[in-house]
Amino acid sequence: MNDESNRAGPAGRPTELTPMPVPPPDAKARSGGGSGNSMPVRGRGRTGNLPVELTSFVGRRHEVGETKKMLSASRLVTLTGIGGVGKTRLALRVATDSQRAFTDGAWLIELSELSDPELVTGVVSDVLGLRNHTVDAPLVLLTDHLADKDVLLVLDNCEHLLESVAALAATVLRTCPGVRILATSREPLRVRGEAVTRVPPMQTPDPDHAPSLRGLPGYESVALFLQRAVAAVPTFELTEDNQVAVAQVCARLDGLPLPIELAAARLRVMSVHQILDRLTDRYRLLTGGSRAAPDRQKTLRWSIGWSYELCTPQEQRLWARLTVFACSFELDAAEAICGDDDRGGDLLDVVSALVDKSILIREEAGDVVRYRMLDILKEYAQEKLQLTGEYPNLRRRFQDWYQELITRAAADIISPRQLHWLDLLDREQPNLRAALHFALSEPDEADAGLRMAVGLSPFWLSRGYVREGRLWLDRVLAAHVGESGADLAKALYLVSLFAGVQGDVAEGVGLLARADSLEDRPGDTSMRALRGFVRGFLALYNSDSVSAVMYFDEAIGAAQESEGADFFHVVSLLGKGLSYVSLGDASKARVCHAEMLALAGALGDFVYCGRSAMIGAWAWWCDGDRTRARAVIEEGIRLSTRADDSFGIGCSLEALAWIEADHDPGCAAVLLGAAAAIWRNVGGTMANYLTGLSYHSDCEQHARRVLGDRQFEEKYQHGSAFSVDNAVGYAFDIQPAPAKKSPEVGTLSRRERQVAELVAEGLTNRAIAAKLVISQRTAQGHVERILSKLGYTSRTQIATWLVEQRHQQNPDPETRTHHS
């Protein structure tokens, strides 16, 4: 989380009349994790999430060209090969070079950190921005989303999840004609239509007949060694004195990129000749004096072993211990779990040494640093760890650390540190899953699993991870069949809510009754707050808003008497306000909204203040104050954007459509389409509740009546094609309808019209330049002239103008050419 998000303290929270200064929707505050293969930035745009390369890409020209050619001919290409041969780097380079060809972008799905086959589809959906709340099969929802998309999916490190990945790939390819998949795996997926190419090692020189000093860098392995050598020792250069040693190092390592990078990193402490001597000794040991070279898998293993042996005992010990993490980690977690209690202060130095030796990869995630280890290095060190007997104790420390982390996050989820906790738990999801798996695999740890799932529920609800939340709650409850207790009752109440959110209201009511039968502590105010909160939402989902208000009041009263019930207090105020919206009571809804802003704002909340904006805006709109209603909505969109909450943005867009209907029906139609796109991705009972309100149908009917069915559908489809970011931009760009006549199409030159069409498709200046083979500056100049000629101030206005021009030129949709 950046510094700005820390400034929202109790005194700085806005009222609904004084919008807080928040960065614009495209600000960096919404960015997710750091660079690198394992932590792609989560984006909601249309260009994808491919990470920026932290080190230069060397060679592989032939492999890149061949893979591109295969990808153009086959919709599934799998790059296979041993670990460390460079499959991921090759896939990312091909994807980066090819992403312009995919209208909906190229997306990296990193699977190495996932061990649960049931979560494969969910992880893919999450990367694509789908947080669907429904009970429908995840694969059906994913294929529905991808059915009309033109997209490249990069499924990285599939070998340990082959069956699940193969099933997903086969279904997606069969039902989504615009999707292509580039996979990396140590073995093929074995899906019909799969094209498989084995990634070879890099070219190496003949160690006995090394080429000239000038010709040696032409070998890919040598070029890689030299680039990484200069990164380690900036003064390093290839000379006549070291050229033979460099050539022999690359040949000894069989041209495998990972061992070459490990060797180059050693130049910080030894010369290239010393590196060669040590490698030669190990090579003779490996081959037993035979002239026959070992296979490359053995070469890889002994080169890693060589790096391991060159580490100090402290470095070896930490390298092995760090394999307890399922994904990247931060320094405080490493110190608590892997550090020696009597020498904790040394750990940072040891971590730094492992980074210098290329064992750990340092990544920046917002304003924190995380570290990760390549899978092949982790596998080697895990074997070493098993030999030490330390693994059981490390696993226990790992679980204890993450259980404590969850407890702290749950207590602080409504606070000025809310975004910090949400982002941190997002980054830690693979480790959290590993901790839950461990708790469920050990009979003595089942209670810990129960507490962790309960503690993670506010995070799952706030982030929209409803399906995963219900999965884990179901699992921990299954481990406690026939038992009773407070934690079990909490889990049952929460899983009943998750079922209701997914639309499985009858199941939710049944689970609620089971929870009531276990709850034997009537004086526990926090339990009463939870029970009233859950009962209120289930009543709301059952269209019983009167009962919902009563239950929410019960929850609010109990939360006021209880410590640590802020989450239930805030969200019950939200539910109560929604109940009054459905009852048509604007006065009471406005009071709920004001109370919620006063409480949640003082506590430092972003998520639920953003979601509540539609309640306050609706109330002011009902009173005829459109200006104030719009101000509340705009503030809500800002807060939801800061929280990366597409559900909250959808609520605000939906309400903004109602507000704009009388003033600008065309704008309302676009907003309804934009909200509908979010509801398709989110789904669930609450989306159905909002679109089932009379205000939604009244808005649509009025816009259709004024615009006519054809123009309404065109504008609606225009909005439904928006990304979430584009929809936010549109909401802030809405201007009063111009009094003057809309500019004619002849106002623009032929080239300007081409550029305008690409602007309407959502392309950036850079993408337009690539598409038209012009410079980025030229593309920018065209866009600026278009805005000037049309008298507009935003790219969204250009897109809207084009829609109007198409309708005027050809009002018959049957003969009109489709434009995306």
From TrEMBL:
Annotated PROSITE patterns: HTH_LUXR_2
SUPFAM superfamilies noted in UniProt: C-terminal effector domain of the bipartite response regulators (SSF46894), P-loop containing nucleoside triphosphate hydrolases (SSF52540), TPR-like (SSF48452)
Renumbered residue ranges of the record's region Disordered: 1-51
Domain HTH luxR-type, first and last residues per copy: 741-806
Classification via InterPro entries: P-loop_NTPase, Sig_transdc_resp-reg_C-effctor, TPR-like_helical_dom_sf, Tscrpt_reg_LuxR_C, WH-like_DNA-bd_sf
Pfam families in the record: GerE
Domain of life: Bacteria
GO molecular function terms noted in the UniProt entry: DNA binding
A GO BP annotation: regulation of DNA-templated transcription
SMART domains the UniProt entry points to: HTH_LUXR
This protein's name: HTH luxR-type domain-containing protein
Native source organism of the sequence: Rhodococcus wratislaviensis (Tsukamurella wratislaviensis)
